[in-house]
Design a protein that fits this description.
Number of helices: 24
Number of strands: 17
Radius of gyration: 33 Å
Largest sheet: 6 strands, parallel
Strand order of the largest sheet: 14-13-15-16-12-17
Distance between the termini: 48 Å
CATH topology of the largest domain: Rossmann fold
Structural class: alpha/beta
Oligomer: single chain
CATH architecture of the largest domain: 3-Layer(aba) Sandwich
CATH class of the largest domain: Alpha Beta
Length: 662
């Protein structure tokens, strides 16, 4: 699987480089009686099984090479920029090839010409009887559905492959899928045929035809599915499908005697005789053009290391960073419901204590206490409690005040330094920023509850303003908690952390009716919340409303106040014109519904805004100001869109040039 993952990555590089090129996906399925009907007559009746498998493998290999040669050199699709293929073996042992062809920009097939490259119709028996018979024999799906409800493709009463397709008079091209090829009904020029399969006789029309290329199908005379990949998404899907790996069989080993424990399952490779012969004769499983090679370039001490089966476990354990196991144990204490932590500690404490031998100069007597001190520090840093509350031994921390590292981090500031930052920055605030600063600071220092939302487009000095607010509140020896929605943005704020790590917000909030944060009363985090006077949350529009509602319930429970955010002054900052909450597979309505504006808390929010673009003001550039106004108009929805609601005219934002000099 590692090899397939690397091959997939290599071929994805080709995809990124040829993103403007057009792609075809071809799947060639091998059946000996279809491809080489004469081969059985040529074989000796006394041919050994090894020779038979060798013969079948060579047939498929030569057939696949022939197909690639026809596509590449005879240019039936046009000039190629790249190609790749991969061999897959079905459970019945027959191989087939997945092939991707990239056409150059000059050879792109226009929508009106797709029907000549890919057909999904039955040929006319009068004008092309040969192709008619090949399509009838190889390219008809089923029958399934009402004609054959027990067909292998039937799942829950419908065809899992989507047959029969709909009649379509003209080709339709979607945004993220294969095109819907022309499939004319018999009333509009389409053809029909009668298909006899064992005891089933079906009348078939174009709805049951698997797409194919007439030229390749005539040359190969086998099942050969050809699709036009018209989007990056469809090409990525095909790349993933091509490199999905070998089949696996799942089995279990049991004894005749009854056992009262869970059976062990083992995943093992499923290799048929034909695939075994293919690999024994060292035939290629995949090839590509142009070649892609990984350069052996790495950061210092970041070179690739290979482990053999014999030393993999030993090396991975011996080279593990210090305290990896203790960190895992601390995470399990906080986030996992362990039945008996003391038993778990007793069983594995010797492994965790080994990390501290070098720190204590080989003194084994103090390693257990050192490990407990380390674990308790980690637990309290994540908002937990002392280890004794979890049923674990009490570490001897003679010089450690048990108030929690996170509490110390939020309270131990240099007051004079914060006052200097506040005084210096306040003199640089513009009028809009000063109004926001004074309004929120007054609410925080007077212990007046309220939620403020600062609507601020990019470039208006949001981060500078937040830093000033934090410094002003901390200079008064008050506690303010600074959080953001993303880890990268957290590095821009003094003592900033993500909202999830700060308030222990559950990752999946949709499974609970009224979710809350995992904050226990009596912990250092709960104490920190009760003593803080303000909370600042940056990049709030990209956070799901369920996070704010869960935080609201938790703060109310901890402070004992049934007020918005537990009566703590809260400043939400961000720009709804930028990234909104991510809803997997959601529609526009789902995304809007997940925003803070759709929350029950929005009616309690006081809106604030900044509109002066400080980047433009400080640069003094007129063109930069015009461009900033255009971006603001775009975000406000003031620029008209074209017929496609997802696009705007390019000329609204500039002109297209041919060279970098222009």
């Amino acid at each position: 699987m590692k090899e397939l993952t690397e091959v997939w990555s290599d071929r994805s590089v080709v995809l990124m480089d040829l993103v403007d090129c057009q792609s075809f996906d071809a799947e060639s399925e091998t059946e000996n009686e279809k491809i080489h009907p004469e081969s059985e007559n040529e074989k000796s009746h006394h041919e050994s099984e090894n020779e038979k498998f060798h013969h079948e493998s060579e047939n498929e290999k030569s057939h696949n090479e022939n197909e690639n040669e026809k596509s590449h050199h005879e240019s039936c699709f046009g000039k190629l920029s790249a190609w790749l293929y991969s061999i897959e073996f079905q459970k019945r042992g027959l191989p087939h090839a997945h092939i991707l062809l990239w056409l150059s920009k000059d050879s792109k097939i226009r929508p009106e010409n797709i029907d000549y490259a890919v057909s999904a119709e039955i040929p006319d028996i009068q004008t092309d009887p040969g192709l008619f018979e090949i399509v009838k024999k190889n390219m008809i799906h089923g029958p399934c559905g009402e004609n054959n409800p027990t067909a292998p493709c039937m799942k829950n009463g419908t065809c899992s492959k989507g047959f029969p397709k709909s009649f379509i008079q003209n080709i339709e091209i979607g945004n993220d899928s294969y095109p819907k090829y022309r499939r004319r009904s018999p009333n509009h020029g389409g053809q029909e045929l009668v298909l006899d399969k064992t005891t089933i006789t079906s009348k078939i029309d174009s709805r049951w035809v698997v797409p194919y290329n007439p030229l390749l199908l005539r040359l190969m005379n086998c099942h050969l599915n050809v699709e036009l990949c018209s989007s990056v998404k469809s090409i990525k899907y095909v790349l993933k499908y091509v490199h999905k790996g070998c089949d696996q069989a799942t089995f279990k080993v049991t004894e005749q005697a009854t056992r009262d424990e869970v059976s062990d399952f083992i995943n093992a490779r499923y290799i048929g005789s034909t695939e075994a012969a293919w690999r024994i004769f060292s035939m290629p499983m995949h090839e590509r053009f142009p070649p892609v090679m990984q350069m052996a370039v790495h950061l210092e001490n970041g070179q690739r290391v290979y482990f053999t089966e014999e030393n993999a476990h030993e090396k991975s354990v011996s080279n593990a960073p210090d305290s990896t196991l203790t960190a895992l144990f601390a995470v399990m204490i906080i986030h996992c419901d362990i039945y008996n932590l003391m038993d778990l500690w007793t069983t594995h404490c010797h492994c965790m204590c080994e990390d501290f031998l070098t720190r204590l100069n080989g003194n084994e007597s103090g390693t257990e206490n050192a490990a407990l001190v380390e674990i308790e520090n980690m637990v309290m840093d994540m908002g937990g409690s002392m280890l004794t509350q979890y049923g674990l031994p009490e570490p001897q921390q003679e010089h450690f005040e048990r108030i929690g590292i996170d509490y110390q981090r939020k309270t131990c500031y240099d007051i004079e330094k914060e006052r200097h930052i506040s005084n210096q920055n306040r003199n640089l605030l513009n009028e809009e920023q000063r109004i926001v600063h004074d309004s929120f600071v007054a609410s925080a220092l007077s212990a007046t509850s309220g939620i403020f939302f600062l609507d601020v487009p990019g470039g208006c000095g949001k981060t500078f303003l937040i830093q000033t607010i934090l410094a002003t509140i901390r200079s008064q020896n008050k506690i303010v908690i600074a959080t953001v929605s993303s880890g990268l943005a957290a590095t821009l704020l003094s003592a900033g952390r993500t909202i999830h790590s700060t308030f222990k917000v559950p990752l999946n909030l949709t499974n609970v009716d009224q979710p809350i944060c995992s904050i226990k009363k009596g912990t250092s985090l709960a104490r920190l919340i009760k003593e803080c006077c303000a909370i600042v949350i940056d990049e709030a529009p990209m956070t799901n409303k369920l996070v704010f509602e869960a935080l609201h319930r938790s703060l109310c429970d901890i402070t004992g106040k049934n007020e918005p955010m537990g009566g703590i002054a809260t400043l939400l900052c961000g720009d709804f014109r930028q990234i909104l909450p991510v809803v997997v597979g959601g529609t526009r309505a789902n995304i809007v519904n997940s925003c803070i504006k759709s929350s029950m808390l929005w009616s309690c929010i006081t809106p604030l805004q900044l509109r002066t673009n400080m980047r433009v003001y400080l640069s003094g550039s007129t063109e930069a100001g015009i461009f900033a106004d255009m971006l603001l108009s775009l975000g406000d929805g003031l620029i008209p869109v074209t017929e496609n609601p997802d696009t705007i005219p390019v000329h609204q934002f500039g002109i297209i040039v041919q060279t970098t000099k222009q």
